[in-house]
Design a protein that fits this description.
With 324 residues, the protein is α/β, with parallel strands linked by helices. It has one domain: Alpha-Beta Barrel (TIM Barrel), CATH 3.20.20. Strand 8, helix 6 and strand 9 form a beta-alpha-beta unit. Helix 1 crosses helix 2, helix 5 packs parallel to helix 6 and helix 8 packs across helix 9. The radius of gyration is 19 Å and the shape is globular.
């Protein structure tokens, strides 16, 4: 494994998104022992960047990660998130009030079985609480030693600037992949200007860019992706055909679809650490091997211009939670 920096925070070049072991995807009902084996194998491969959130489960994923990493805390960078649920009001409401943040951090610390969280994200921007107040509360947690670094997720350009003016923001986590380019709206330019690292989530397009999903029948009946515009009947088949552009480059390099998709991200930014999610060791090994894939400038350019998918990467209702 190779390593990089999100601002001053050292992380593995590719991290592991742990959500799918506990939340919304097919396979989340695998045994705890299987999930722990996958997490331990990630450590053995040199992965140090593990991403979770109180919302995943809710709470189940943090508890799983905490159990798996017990005794190896000093080997890892733990990232978690707050703000997509309230502990003081409507549980399903976005809440970044100071009171809620302080309740959330104590719960996350307990479930993760740790004294501190390395990178603590505001999961979504709360438009009822000024970002300056949110970052003020988080900077207090830094001073208290409960968190080390502050992150934002799906934050817009103005929010990023205002937040960074209060306290250095270490990373922005947003969806970004060959097939999801929202951050090309100028957000990536701001990150480079301010020295903020980037953590692309869903870097494999929720599985389509892995080449492993060929039919909706592979997904459990309550898998969230069945409602995603890109996985709808008709759209999925169109999108599988559009993978031909990516497959052509993968064949030229001699790697898998997943590996070329991740290698493209690594080629786009030295201070990027994508977090593909998987629950199975063979897929984990495939994804992490992408850290050693080197693309030529012409191959990167070819991937820059691949045919984009049919359908949005979120439903219109889900997109309302983004700070655009």
């Amino acid at each position: 494994m190779k390593y990089t920096h999100l601002r001053d925070l050292t992380v593995s070049r590719i991290g592991l998104g742990c959500m799918g072991m506990s939340h919304i995807y097919t396979g989340r009902d695998q045994s705890e022992e299987e999930s722990i084996r996958t997490l331990h194998h990630a450590l053995d491969l040199g992965v140090t960047h593990f991403d979770t959130a109180e919302m995943y489960g809710p709470f189940l994923n943090e508890a799983l990660v905490g159990k798996a990493l017990k005794g190896r805390r000093d080997q890892v960078t733990l990232a978690s998130k707050f703000g997509l649920m309230s502990h003081v009001g409507n549980p399903s409401a976005t809440d970044s009030s100071a009171t809620n943040i302080r309740i959330a951090i104590e719960g996350s610390l307990k479930r993760l079985d740790t004294d501190y969280i390395d990178l603590y994200y505001q999961h979504r921007v709360d438009k009822t609480v000024p970002i300056e107040d949110v970052i003020g509360t988080l900077s207090e947690l830094v001073a208290e030693g409960k968190i080390r670094y502050i992150g934002l997720s799906e934050a817009g350009q103005g929010t990023i600037r205002r937040a960074n003016a209060v306290h250095p923001i270490t990373a922005l986590q947003s969806e970004y992949s060959l097939w999801s380019r929202d951050a090309d709206d100028g957000t990536l330019d701001i990150l480079r200007e301010l020295g903020i690292g980037f953590v692309p989530y869903s870097p494999l397009g929720r599985g389509i860019l892995s080449g492993k999903i060929q039919s909706r029948d592979q997904l459990d009946s309550d898998d969230w992706r069945l409602t995603n515009p890109r996985f709808l009947e008709g759209s999925l088949q169109t999108n599988l055909q559009r993978l031909a552009d990516v497959q052509a480059v993968a064949d030229e390099v001699g790697v898998s679809l997943a590996q070329v998709s991740l290698a493209w991200l690594l080629a786009k930014g030295d201070d990027w650490s994508p977090i593909p999610g998987t629950i199975r060791i063979p897929h984990l090994e495939e994804d992490m091997a992408a850290a050693d894939v080197v693309l030529t400038a012409s191959q990167v350019l070819a991937l820059d211009t691949v045919t984009q998918p049919e359908g949005g990467h979120h439903t219109p209702a889900q997109s309302l939670s983004f700070d655009r």
